[in-house]
Amino acid sequence: MSERGVFAVDRGIWDHPSFANEPLTEREAWIWLIGEASFKERAKRIGSLVLPLKRGQVAASLRFMAVKWQWSEARVRRFLKRLASDAMIDASTDARITVLTICNYDKYQKVSLPRDAGKDARSDAAATRPRRKEESKESTEVSSELRSAPPPASAPIYTDSRHELWGEGVPILVSMGVSESGARGNIGRWLKAMRDDSQAVLGAIQRARDNRVLNPIPWITQALAGPKNGSAHHEIRTHSYSNRSSSAAVLAGVAAATERRARERGATGQQWKVSSNADVAKNDDPEQQ
Hints:
This protein has helices spanning 26-36, 62-69, 73-85, 105-108, 117-148, 161-175, 180-193, 198-210, 216-224, 227-284, and strands at 42-46, 49-53, 57-60, 89-94, 97-102. By secondary structure, it is mainly α. Among the domains are: 11-108, Arc Repressor Mutant, subunit A; 161-225; 235-260.
């Protein structure tokens, strides 16, 4: 396609977890065709058909490519027709199976032909010199643009943990596929359930992100209401009740002791009164005088 050289691309790029599963661009569809092409002569079975393929050929139905690229079959047909008109592929159809031949396949795959490595290296060196000068010039221009660009925005400053929860938690949930309104609604519900413990809610959201949870809402809800938190809350409630029970027992003991001492003092006073009255009566008895 150009004289700028080629590079190898791992075929695992199409199902790598770091990239979203989304429709391919036309450029990506072209790279897919090159990667899907046979690198040597072989036979490929499609349904009940066994098709012999040469180096640089792809055998697939329009429907198969439409599913892989997430396109409509009509768009796949138009794209292949344009590639054929640009002499980038040759196409033939047999029993609804399209066989595509990548033109200049060996040129695109020079890196996979080690026997020509020495020859390619010498020819590439001459073509590389002017390209490197151009790339050096582009790099200098980019560096100049970076120096003149405004400084990047600083990290946000949060006034409190609740502010941090809304500032960090909402974007995390949105990045995991939750709508913004859904993220805000669920954060509000979690805050209420956790009695405004913003740090606990944000921690659960961050753990869901770090674990790459597919369904974050039920996962976070379960994490916040799980056995660990439930045990902690139960322990707090039990401890509080135990403290109240202990205090009540102490107060009851003090009251009982006070009442017992009062009864003892009352009994002693009554005895002293009876004894005093008896002495007075004794002294007043004329027979005893």
